[in-house]
Amino acid sequence: MARTAVTRRTLLTSGAAAVAALGVTSCTAGSGGESGEDDAKGIRSGGRPAGKSVVDVVADFGARGDGRSDDSEAFEKAYRHAAARVTGGVGRTVIAVPPGAYLIRRPRALLDGGDPDRRANGLRFMGAGKRISEIIFQPDKDGAADAFLCHNDNMWANLKFEQLRFRSATPGASFFSSYSEGQAQDYRFSECEWTGEWTYGLALDGSNTNSEMRWDACRVGGAYRKAFLYSGLSKRSRDKKQQDQFLNYWFSDMKVEYEWGNFLEFLYGGSITCRGGSYIVTGRRPGPAGDYGRTSTFFRFPRAEHADSVQRFHAEDIRFEVRDPDVRIIDCTWDAGTVHFNDCDDTSNAFKSFSAGISPHRYRTGANGPMIRYDMCSLVGHHRYETGTRKPGAPPLARYDMCAFRSHPQRDFAEIRGSGAGDKGAEVRFTDCTGH
Fold it and tell me: Second label for 386, Cα 20 to 30 Å away, from 16, 79, 109, 273?
């Protein structure tokens, strides 16, 4: 097949035509003030893309930001401008969102990555502060269950959102749908905030990656009918076993203070690290909800069987508040892997009348685990273990090192049930722990 030569002139001409077709007159070639140094450094392959590298949704696309006018079109134009500037598989655009409240009524207006044959790496949304630049998502109520503000169909990698607040003004809408067959990955959220009632925060589907995601100094508020991060949606996955390839999620210095629902729900395993911050469920579910009942759970890992994938969870330096008996910190049914809590405290409400009888940490274990460990933690209530068949000579289900039990003495702290329950001293090991 003959190849057509692409010159700098033809690329610029075709790029300018694509941007002009969007009606973006203020972002044509030459108006962005990009220096010629980029070409000298070899940053761009195939020539300079047309239009500005940094665009402003107000100045360049006419967004009002008054909280009343529908700014969907302005954000759609901003996204299409960024998509048109992708060259050599690399995105080269920053979308700036100045101070204001931006009402978006149309799903996918913020991000509509629906062209997996045109894969791109790199797109940045930059606000002025998480309570200064606010995006209000208000789709029609009738379609809220399938409405996502952002959509990535195996197209974009290396997405960054910073200093933005996202609010659902239609209960049951969702923030982000991400489908991957090897491309959608490397998302980073810095100093962002979510409020309002959502079905999903991020819903991950597909196979192979949808991985390497980081949240830094963000606040997760609002409420979640499913979960803030729901891994393993399984609507389009061609191979359900490959749902296990969702790996590497990091949460650092978070304020997780939402009304009800689940924070993380991983149906197919994963590698998850939560380090630092405050985690609180501030209210109660408005009514029973399917498998969840009235329970809200920070870390819900509900499926035991997995394909060849990691099952690893680590929580460190976190202060949890258990304000209600229907709040659980972890509910895990993994049959392998590791769970580790280090220097965590969930005892702030240990003085309440219900606290001694709760079990905010629950495990259903298999023959191969998971291996569970708590180090230097202060813990309220009981921990519950439901065991399956245990192999003779198997290591303990769990180990507690230098932990403080606020509600019970050590001998009564662990509740062990199930067919594999044997001698409690052999199933749970305590080292230098104290209890009341």
Answer: 273
404 to each of 118, 343, 400, 431, how far by Cα in Å? 54, 11, 9, 11
CA–CA gap between residue 339 and residue 373 (Å, rounded): 6
Q: What backbone phi and psi angles, to 5 degrees, belong to 106?
A: -95, 130
CB 110, CB 147: distance < 8 Å: no
CB count within 10 Å of CB 171 equals 14
Given a cut of 50, is residue 223 above it in pLDDT? Answer: yes
389-423 burial by CB neighbour count: b if 16+ within 10 A, else e? ebeeebeebbbbeebebbbbeeeebbbbeeebbee
Peptide bond into 370 cis (omega under 30): yes
Q: In this model, does residue 166 exceed pLDDT 50?
A: yes
Residue 231 CA to residue 234 CA, distance in Å, equals 9
User: In whole numbers, what is the pLDDT of the chain averaged over residues?
Assistant: 86
| Whole-number Å distance between alpha carbons of 219 and 203 | 18
Strand runs labelled E in 3-99:
54-56, 66-70, 94-97
> CB-based contacts of 181: which residues, under 8 Å, 6+ apart?
116, 154, 206, 207, 208, 238
pLDDT value for 304: 61
pLDDT score at 241: 66
